[in-house]
Write a structure and sequence with these properties.
The protein has helices spanning about 1-30, 70-85, 115-130, 165-180, 180-190, 190-200, 210-230, 235-240, 240-255, 260-285, 300-310, 365-370, 375-385, 400-430, 435-450; strands at about 30-40, 105-110, 150, 290-295, 320-330, 335-340, 350, 360. With about 450 residues, the chain is α/β, with parallel strands linked by helices. The chain starts with a helix and ends with a helix.
């Protein structure tokens, strides 16, 4: 009996050891996260435009129009904490292998050149990379600066959606809508509501249907911000039921993304789609050390990339929504690309991209996905008939540059005329002057030169 008990103990120990080895083998062979590309909309903000007849003006908002609010900062701080927990815990299946204290070569951050997107990126990074030694002896002990790269607005072709101004895109998009029965039906069936919006708000009237939609959508955005921040709507606005009146226009605006032609979709998100594939390829081929790439943008940024990827639902993305393109190395040695979406008020959403499995895309599937929609920044410039403006004035509008050029030419012509008149006057005086006078002028000229 004693021998039997010892045999059972040895057998149990052996089974435990074998199970341990099996578990280690499975863990070692499990999929590994190699790269994450985060794209997010900025956080809650003040309205970008004031309604002419409104009781609220620019001074009604603490930092003015279009600025990130305290709620907006906090939401991205929490987003940073969420993804830190997802990517920096070695015991987690989603461990990215990042240095939790921030390592420059592992992280790349880019934002549009807007204060609300720059501050959203900074808030996110504050949550993701808190200082390693938080002893409160120095202000930097509770926050560490991390670089956020950006480009001047006219030069931004990747994160702002369609390049503005771009005659080619504007004309094409206008033609698409003017030939779309659903768009025309909505606008014509809501003619009286559109007229009421203009009258109540005091907007300058437009006959163009697309301009009317834009005005109504702007009205929605301003009223949405006021309601979100618990501002009491103007009495006349409330009596006219103005907010509910403009809600359908806003819904229409975002549904129009899915009506775009392939060319228009490429204008909106083709550059970013190309960038995503470039980053994914670099991670697979191990030619780039970055493990975390962050793009801070707008609702149009997310709508554009989701449209070019073929999974946009036509609904405006809420503030502080985060999309993540994750590159996984599979246990078989291949790679899988997955797209997920995070928002504090939603469960984590996993997208199934066209032509891919529910679990994700293979390399071949992802790189071939909507390849016809990819565009480079040079492609944008060519199609928009734009030229590369001098680096010394990257943020100047072309109309301003044209005026400056005209002023310069006019000034040059005036200078030439004055100089010609002066020289003619000297020649005339010289003709009737004595030799002594000529010698006297020569001496003056010498004196002028020496001075």
């Amino acid at each position: 009996q004693h021998y039997f008990i010892q045999s059972n103990l040895r057998m149990g120990a052996l089974l435990t050891f074998l199970l341990f080895l099996l578990n280690c083998s499975v863990s070692a062979a499990a999929d590994k996260l190699k790269l994450s590309i985060l794209m997010f909309r900025h956080g809650d903000r003040s309205p970008t435009t004031n309604i002419p007849n409104d009781i609220y003006t620019t001074d009604s908002w603490p930092q003015g129009p279009g600025q990130l609010s305290i709620i907006g900062k906090e939401s991205h701080l929490e987003n940073g904490k969420f993804f830190r927990a997802r990517y920096t815990d070695p015991s987690s299946e989603t461990y990215l292998g990042l240095n939790p204290d921030y390592k420059r070569v592992e992280v790349d951050v880019r934002s549009t050149d807007m204060e609300r997107t720059l501050m959203s990126a900074e808030s996110f990074l504050a949550g993701f990379f808190p200082p390693p030694d938080n002893n409160l002896t120095n202000p930097l002990d509770v926050w560490q600066p991390i670089p956020v790269h950006t480009l001047p607005y006219p030069n931004e072709k990747m994160l702002d959606g369609a390049p503005v101004p771009c005659k080619a895109f504007t004309e094409s998009y206008h033609e698409t809508l003017m030939n779309n029965a659903d768009f025309l039906s909505f606008m014509r069936n809501n003619t009286e509501n559109t007229k009421k919006i203009y009258e109540v708000c005091g907007w300058k009237e437009h006959s163009d249907l697309l301009s009317q939609l834009s005005t109504a959508e702007t009205t929605y955005d301003t009223l949405f911000c006021e309601k979100s921040h618990n501002y009491t709507l103007k009495k006349e606005f409330a009596e006219a039921n103005l907010f509910n009146l403009v809600v359908p226009y806003n819904a229409l605006r975002w549904s129009l993304f899915n009506l775009m032609t392939d060319s228009e979709k490429a204008f909106m998100g083709g550059v970013l789609l190309r960038e995503l594939k470039t980053r994914v390829r670099a991670a697979i081929e191990q030619t780039d050390e970055h493990k975390l790439v962050i793009f801070s943008g707008h609702d149009t940024t997310l709508a554009s990339i989701l449209t070019t990827l073929g999974v946009y639902d036509g609904v405006q993305t809420p503030y502080a929504t985060v999309l993540a393109v994750e590159v996984w190395e599979t246990e078989e040695g291949g790679h899988e690309i997955r797209l997920i979406r995070h928002h504090k008020d939603e469960d984590l959403i996993s997208y199934t991209l066209p032509g891919c499995q529910e679990s994700g895309c293979t390399e071949e599937q992802f790189f071939s996905l909507n390849a016809n929609l990819e565009m480079s920044e040079d492609d944008i410039l060519d199609k928009c008939n734009e030229t590369s403006w001098p680096d010394f004035a990257p943020s100047l509008d072309k109309n301003v540059l044209f005026v400056l050029l005209c002023v310069t030419i006019l000034f040059t012509l005036c200078s030439l005329i004055v100089t010609t008149i002066y020289l003619c006057s000297i020649k005339k005086n010289t003709k009737y002057s004595s030799l002594g006078a000529v010698e006297h002028r020569s001496l003056l000229a010498d004196d002028d030169f020496l001075a």
